[in-house]
Amino acid sequence: MRGFEHLIAHHVPNWFRTIMPSDGGMPTPLVSRGFSITWTLELQLQHMANQSIGRSILSIPKPNIFLGDKNATMAIARLLNENTAALAKALPRRFSFFATSALPYVNESITEVEYAVDTLGAVGAALTSNHEGKYLGNPECISFFARMQNMKAIVFVHPANPLLEVAGNFLLAKPRPQLNVSRLSCIPHIARTFIDLALSGTLPNLTHVNFIISHVGGSLPSIIDRIPVRTNTDDTAAILEAFHTRCWWDSAGITYAHQLGGLLGYNISPSFLLYGSDYPWLPAPLVDPAFDAIATSPFLDDAQKQAMRSENIKRLFEGKIEF
């Protein structure tokens, strides 16, 4: 099974790697599963050719590299958006992109996402599971999501290392320092932020926002059944309705061998599944095993596998990308 037309992937330009400080919440040096994380346009196009991929929708997996510095965070967001927009403009049939925000700085983020979408042509906004320790259900994010609602935005959410702010310093909140976000620690943190969005009321209230949840929700399926313990019947129904109709589930990583079964157990329609390679965070030598797990997955039939690699993403981005 080959011939993916579109996917979600990451963009890590060399200038960004150069200025990324060691405490920015990413592995330093940038290493994933024993492989160096390297991105160039040439490598991206080669990866797409190897996988028969026509288009990549690019995002920056961890833009918050100058923690606590509002001006630097705003500047990095603008640089990343301008840089990725130039790439998409130069190769419009090969690349689209998600806007980088300046969260946790809410007003600045609204301005930046509006600019990236309205002026630069971004097809949505990319967020991380937390921004400087603030998860997406934080009350400070309400006005940001209100603007996303007005924009009828597509919001892609990628996991990030959990941070704690202690006496003005940011600390990685991980039980084992060896667990970087590209391995096991990403699984609970994508779940944590969506439970936060659900229980805060943000998720069910955003009736015009479509979320793309990476790694098919991480460990979210294992804890959805706990939602009724914290909510009343009507709230639970609204949350589950949002998961069923306004959340799209990106395959990034090796998630189809077993993990997908837990998600589909909640009657999530396969028509809301999307393909994402996680490249280069999932290094090129490991893309094929992830792909093969999709091809041999017992949870989908051939027509559903075909749809998740093309038709589903076309339906989600109708009117935003010219396919």
UniProtKB/TrEMBL annotation:
Keywords: Decarboxylase, Lyase. One of its GO terms (molecular function) is hydrolase activity. GO terms for cellular component: cytosol. This is Amidohydrolase 2. Belongs to the metallo-dependent hydrolases superfamily. PANTHER family: 2-AMINO-3-CARBOXYLMUCONATE-6-SEMIALDEHYDE DECARBOXYLASE, AMIDOHYDROLASE-RELATED DOMAIN-CONTAINING PROTEIN. GO terms for biological process: secondary metabolic process. Residues 71-317 form the Amidohydrolase-related domain. Pfam families: Amidohydro_2.
